[in-house]
Design goal:
Length: 364
C-alpha cells in the first residue's frame, strides 16, 4: 500500500471541511479527487502534501506515518493550478531548481533536466523564460519541475483549469501517456468529469468534505452508490423514475408509471429488499432507445411520450420527454432528430439501470 488515509479530519476554526476521510491507493494508481468547488478536494490534497496540518487522523506513505512530517520530507511533488514558475529563470533552471537547492551537482542537474525535457517534448524550450511560453508549455514545465525530483507521489491541483478546451483534451492524453510511461502514482484534483472518467484508475467522489464513493471510473458511473453520485457523475444526467419493487418468486420486477418490468440479473447492493419497497429507478439517457433492436436483454419497458424540447450537440441530440409528470431525457442520433410536440415510442433498457431507496437515496 503506497498511500493510506485513516479518518482524516480538517477544521478551520469551527468549520469542519474534511470529515473522516479514509482510503488506500497502490503504487502506480492515478487517483482523481472529483467534486464541485468547495467540497474539500484541494484541502485534502494540501493535507496529503503537508501544506495543511490535519486536525485528526493519520497519513501513511509507504508504510511510514507522515502525519506530522514536513512537506519536504514526504517525498511528494506538487503541480499547482497557477504553475508557480519563477519568471526570471529560464525553463531549464525552473525544472532543475529543486535539485540545485538540494546541492545536486551541475552535470547531474543538467542530465536530469534534459531527461525530463525529452519525456515532455520540451527540449527546444529550455532556454526560454516563462513569459515566452504558451499555457500548455507552462503546464509541461510545471510538470517537469515535479518529475525531475522522482517523487513517490505526484499531486496535481486542477492542472488543466487554465487551458482552453483543445489544450485540455491534448493535456489529458499527454498526462495519461506520461502516467503509463513512468508507472508513477498520481493524485489529481478536478471538477471535470471527462478528466476523471478518461484518466483515472480510481475516483473519489467528494461532497461536503466526505467521500461519497471510491472506486474505478466504470463502477462510479455504472453502479453509483447513492443518488448524489448518480446525479453528479455523467455529462447527461441520469433519469429518476418513482416506482416500487415487486417480486414474483425469485424474479425481481419494478413497477413504474403503471408498467411492470423484470429487472433481469440486477445485483442488489445489500440484503434483498422487501416487496413493495418504494424506489427511484435510475436510467441513463443513453439507455433509452427509439428502436427495440438496441435493447441488450429482455429487461425493459416501453412508453409513447411527447417531445418537450431538444438540444443538438453534433452527432447526437439530447431530447426531453414528459413521463408521468416527470421530465426524462435520452440521447439519439441527430440524423433522427424528432420534432417538438411529436409523440414517439421509447424503450427503457433496464439491463444497466440502478435502484435507489426513495427515502435514503442509497443504492439498493
Amino acid at each position: 500500500m503506497l498511500l493510506k488515509l485513516e479518518n482524516l479530519t480538517k477544521s478551520f476554526g469551527a468549520e469542519e471541511v474534511l470529515r473522516n476521510v479514509s482510503f488506500e491507493i497502490e503504487k502506480g494508481d492515478l487517483l482523481v479527487l472529483l467534486g464541485e468547488s468547495g467540497c474539500g478536494k484541494s484541502t485534502l490534497l494540501n493535507c496529503i502534501a503537508g501544506l495543511e496540518e490535519i486536525t485528526s487522523g493519520r497519513i501513511e506513505i509507504n508504510g511510514r506515518d507522515v502525519t506530522g512530517v514536513e512537506p519536504s520530507d514526504r517525498d511528494i511533488a506538487m503541480v499547482f493550478q497557477s504553475y508557480a514558475l519563477y519568471p526570471t529563470m529560464n525553463v531549464a533552471r525552473n525544472i532543475g531548481f529543486s535539485l540545485e537547492c538540494q546541492g545536486v551537482g551541475k552535470a547531474e542537474r543538467r542530465d536530469a533536466v534534459e531527461r525530463v525535457a525529452k519525456i515532455l517534448q520540451i527540449s527546444e524550450l529550455l532556454n526560454r523564460k516563462p513569459s515566452q511560453l504558451s499555457g500548455g508549455q507552462k503546464q509541461r514545465v510545471a510538470i517537469g519541475r515535479a518529475l525531475v525530483r522522482d517523487p513517490v507521489i505526484f499531486l496535481l491541483d486542477e492542472p488543466m483549469s487554465n487551458l482552453d478546451a483543445k489544450l485540455r483534451h491534448q493535456m489529458r492524453q499527454e498526462l495519461r501517456d506520461l502516467h503509463g510511461i513512468l508507472g508513477a502514482t498520481f493524485i489529481l484534483v478536478t471538477h471535470d468529469q471527462i478528466e476523471a472518467m478518461s484518466m483515472a484508475t480510481k475516483v473519489a467522489v467528494m461532497d461536503g468534505g466526505r467521500i461519497r464513493q471510491f472506486g474505478t471510473p466504470y463502477d462510479i458511473y455504472h453502479a453509483p452508490g447513492d443518488k448524489f453520485v448518480a446525479e453528479f457523475v455523467g455529462l447527461n444526467k441520469m433519469n429518476f423514475l418513482e416506482g416500487r419493487l415487486a417480486f414474483s418468486g425469485s424474479e425481481a420486477c419494478v413497477e413504474v408509471g403503471g408498467r411492470r418490468a423484470p429487472l433481469g440479473h440486477y445485483a442488489f447492493a445489500g440484503d434483498k429488499p422487501a416487496d413493495g419497497t418504494r424506489v427511484l429507478l435510475g436510467v441513463r439517457p443513453e439507455n433509452i432507445y427509439r428502436s427495440k433492436e438496441r435493447l441488450e436483454g429482455s429487461s425493459h419497458f416501453e412508453a409513447e411520450l411527447e417531445v418537450l424540447k431538444r438540444e443538438l450537440t453534433g452527432g447526437d441530440v439530447q431530447v426531453w420527454f414528459e413521463f408521468g409528470g416527470k421530465v426524462v431525457s435520452c440521447r439519439i442520433r441527430s440524423s433522427r432528430m424528432p420534432e417538438i410536440g411529436a409523440r414517439t415510442t421509447l424503450f427503457f433498457d433496464l439491463q444497466n439501470a440502478s435502484l435507489f431507496h426513495a427515502e435514503t437515496g442509497k443504492r439498493i
